[in-house]
Amino acid sequence: xxxxxxxxxxxxxxxxxxxxxxxxxxxxxxxxxxxxxxxxxxxxxxxxxxxxxxxxxxxxxxxxxxxxxxxxxxxxxxxxxxxxxxxxxxxxxxxxxxxxxxxxxxxxxxxxxxxxxxxxxxxxxxxxxxxxxxxxxxxxxxxxxxxxxxxxxxxxxxxxxxxxxxxxxxxxxxxxxxxxxxxxxxxxxxxxxxxxxxxxxxxxxxxxxxxxxxxxxxxxxxxxxxxxxxxxxxxxxxxxxxxxxxxxxxxxxxxxxxxxxxxxxxxxxxxxxxxxxxxxxxxxxxxxxxxxxxxxxxxxxxxxxxxxxxxxxxxxxxxxx
Length: 321
What we know:
Shape: globular
CATH superfamily of the largest domain: NAD(P)-binding Rossmann-like Domain
Number of strands: 13
CATH class of the largest domain: Alpha Beta
Strand content: 15-25%
Order of helices and strands: EHEEHEHHEHEEHEEEHEEHEHH
Structural class: alpha/beta
Low-confidence stretches: 40-48
Strand order of the largest sheet: 3-2-1-4-5-6-11
Largest sheet: 7 strands, parallel
Radius of gyration: 20 Å
């Protein structure tokens, strides 16, 4: 790697957000090392091929210290860990291990090997739970609804500990409803699957449709990371669009993009761990020059096009088998 380039490490680089972040920093001309589990046979275009080095590790791993010692990254973006509210409710200890223990292990490696590295933790708006008022500022009360939310807050506390006690420069980004091409779970993927199915049954959606989310495209999350890193900032930042969109509005946009005439039926009940309304105050990250570049309408259309191509490939592979 050239010494003139910023050296960026991304953990969880085989996952949805990690792969987008690898792509983004490579496009900025940085030297990117991808750390995670990789499946290079994927045809979705978002396995992190845009990286200079690949390290197939499942954290925590004893080899991480040597990799850090050799490469001495300027920036470590921590995307690794569990990201399922539902799974955390059923297996809270596993979620704790995959999030809190992995985060603490990585920070300990940085403390010993590369204490000048900037550490950026991708946390979650799940720490806020059901907010008392909108928009949600970083000073809003912490009241998680799931083990996942509690464990993300614990990761934040560990990052704060290593900054306050050991001087590891740490920034915490609370991500709201992340989406983008390559996402194969959560509400958008579920809706695309339901609208593309051949059955004549209506599409069933949890809730009333009046619930709101603040969607942010993965490329804008990567932009936010770069803004924080360039400003050498620490502390908490909300990362979102700053706009709330009703679930019903998103459902209708996807229905149109998928070219479906199916009816939609709302269950009237929400799932445990799901908040009702989300809208972020993004003024703190905006002060660093962050501006969402992917508007929701454009982003959903892109996502649906990606899904249709992915679904075509999946069906072709299934029939070939």
